[in-house]
Amino acid sequence: MSISRRTMFGLGAAGAAAVGAGAIAARSLLEEPTAAHAASTSDPFPFYGEHQAGIVTPAQDRLHFVAFDVTTSRRDELLELLQEWTAAAARLTQGKEAGAFGAVGGPAEGAPDDTGEALGLPASGLTLTIGFGASLFDDRFGLAAKLPAALAPLPKFPGERLIPEISGGDICVQACAHDPQVAVHAIRNLARIGFGRVSVRWSQLGFGRTSSTSRAQVTPRNLMGFKDGTNNMKLEDAALVREQLWASAADGAAWMAGGSYLVTRKIRMTIETWDRTSLREQEDIFGRDKGEGAPVGKAREFDPVDLAAMKPDAHVRLAHPSQHGDAHLLRRGYNFVDGSDGLGRLDAGLFFIAYQRDPRKQFVPVQMSLARTDPLNEYIKHVSSGLFACPPGVRDAGDFWGRELFA
Amino acid sequence: MSAITRLTIGALAVAALTACAAETPAGPGAAAQPGQAGPGKVAVAASDTECKVAVSEVAAGTSTFAVTNGGSKVTEFYVYAPGDRVMAEVENIVPGLTRELIAELPAGSYETACKPGMVGKGIRSPLKVTGEHKPLNADAKLAEATASYKRYVKSQSDTLLVKTQEFVDAVKAGEIDKAKELFPVSRTYWERIEPVAEIFGDLDPAIDAREADLAEGEEWTGFHKIEKDLWITKDISKDGPIADKLIADVKTIVAKANTAELTPLNLANGAKELLDEVATGKITGEEDIWSHTDLWDFAANLAGSKAAVQSLRPVLEERAPDLVKTLDEKFAAAEAELGKHQKGDGWRLHNELSKEELKSLSDVINALAEPISTIAPIVAK
């Protein structure tokens, strides 16, 4: 049995499923709704709305994520920045340039107000999503009383090796697009607008999505070669999205109504040792087969899982909502390779991103159980962590990111 | 163009070295009599801790300050317009000497400052200039901007010559310790006006090339060659010809710099380029890779950038008052952040700074350089 990776991905990109030559009976995705994915990958998504784009938006292929420290101590400067950023984001997400003059429209004596590397590129499905870290709610800006309980610091998870310089941050912006140049262009211009008020704390590129957030999307693979996020919360799960994704005023922080909480974890994979692991062990560890992604004992990827058939510590079983009081996450992670590590290995892994209504009830219990017993821990290491409150969407041109927070 | 003629006189605000302390500092009782400043000279008694200016008010027009250094540290004397715009300055006043400063001052509020040890904000006093105030038209303001900056270039380059000569003499005399002490000091005057020097492209590398800048087989001369010999090989016995060439090149470039025609755009771009220098060379420690005295150069670049920006201040106040406010804030923030690393009359070494401290410096420079990059189209209008 052999599957051509090229054929498989080629068809996958076309929204169809590959059928292997042998025993793999691929589940055809043609029976899935395709509307959300049918639009061209060059088209824009709306910027304004009840919720921020970039959460249930069908996960784009590329990521540039950035965390900022606020360097000004003045509330009015921070407010101005959020307004300037919102205006720039409204333009950038629609395929326009960051400033009114653009890369070449301004005076020749001055520096252009757009950096120019996205000239000629379409919107490419760019979304920009902002979040506020707990550190923003200290005594600098008078926000202490607005700190949501759900932003409580994450507990220490066994085995994590967090590097402070690439963790946390006062403000984050997630840029997702189908073209990496478009995502980087957006973050670069926002960082430039922010000079003097914010400073880049850390940033992360992701070159390939590892999750589907719509049933119209093919489930992608992580760098371990497995389909990831088959059972992810998806935009079509209206009731689940309402109950477990969007925060409500009743949760305690009224300004977060319609927002969502974001957890990021940079997970370094020692892919070299993983690659030397037998197929059987790999499949046992995940609880799914590697080719189709079907749960143990089942034939198709989306067949209902039979947890009892899996090893007690299989990844899918440990993370399954039924093990955590039906706690779901909307995962939106990306594969990364940050060059190499100087020891002859790729510096590779998963930049995990998950949105939820309350991390204390969702991410924390799931991760605690994984951190304790997941056999995958032999191959992975959490090296950075972030927790951010992403406010509701920007309603119109008169609104701006964080207006409710500063009201 | 009478305004320009008048301003050219301003360019004469050059320090004159007097052979003896002819003008004894006036006592405090002589202060605050505007009339006294007319034909006579304003005595300034500078020490390591004080800067006593004999009067606090002078008449508009030409004033001559006689600055006597009664302290133990080399000092400098400045007359600042708002925003630390340098109206006139005299550098390198060694202990025991008196130097004169001729300043062309229109009516307004100013500050005087002595800088013992040549670092920091200095010891400040207010100086009021009374009399007829003639507002300049737009062209005259631009002309005054370049004239003001040329005064700065002149005073800096004069001192550059003196300090480079001292450095070269020490190198040729084989005085390693003295040469090491003079290295960052002489470079300070170079780094404050480097964008002007860079107009003469062939000489800048001869004076300031770093080893990493060279192509294979290229001859290496200038400050950094001597730096390596001072700090690494610890053998300057063969550096005589390099030292001779350095002072010869500096003399040539100073002569050219002082005859160069400058435009407001040169000033705006120079201010930005100096901060680019900080961002690419000094924060990374690549400028002075052997001596690690990058923060001297950092401070000099920042001061030079500010001098260029403040020369343009009257134009900017008219055309972009909000920007002036922003620039004042960001310059102050950058100076405060850098000031944390002052050590005696100098600076901490680059390799003594933590990554966090360097990031904070990088942040304030980014914060300052972005608004500075918007000056050029404003003054080009």
UniProtKB/TrEMBL annotation, chain A:
E.C. designation(s): 1.11.1.-
Named cofactor requirement(s): heme b
GO function terms (MF aspect): ferrochelatase activity; heme binding; metal ion binding; peroxidase activity
Matches recorded under Pfam families: Dyp_perox_C (PF20628), Dyp_perox_N (PF04261)
Keyword check for Magnesium: no
Subcellular location: Cell envelope
Catalytic activity: heme b + 2 H(+) = protoporphyrin IX + Fe(2+)
PROSITE patterns: DYP_PEROXIDASE, TAT
Keyword terms of this UniProt record: Heme, Iron, Lyase, Metal-binding, Oxidoreductase, Peroxidase, Signal
GO BP terms in the entry: iron import into cell
Species name: Nonomuraea soli
Residues of the Dyp-type peroxidase C-terminal domain: 219-394
Its job: Involved in the recovery of exogenous heme iron. Extracts iron from heme while preserving the protoporphyrin ring intact.
GO cellular component, one term: cell envelope
Protein family: Belongs to the DyP-type peroxidase family.
Taxonomic lineage of the native organism: Bacteria, Bacillati, Actinomycetota, Actinomycetes, Streptosporangiales
Protein name (Swiss-Prot/TrEMBL): Deferrochelatase
From TrEMBL, chain B:
Record's GO cellular component terms: periplasmic space
Domain Imelysin-like: 145-374
A Pfam short name: Cupredoxin_1
InterPro entries: EfeM/EfeO_iron_uptake, EfeO_Cupredoxin, Imelysin-like, Imelysin-like_EfeO/Algp7, Imelysin_sf, Iron_uptake_EfeM/EfeO
Keywords: Signal
Keyword NADP found: no
Compartments, record wording: Periplasm
Stretch forming the signal peptide: 1-21
Name of the featured protein: Iron uptake system component EfeO
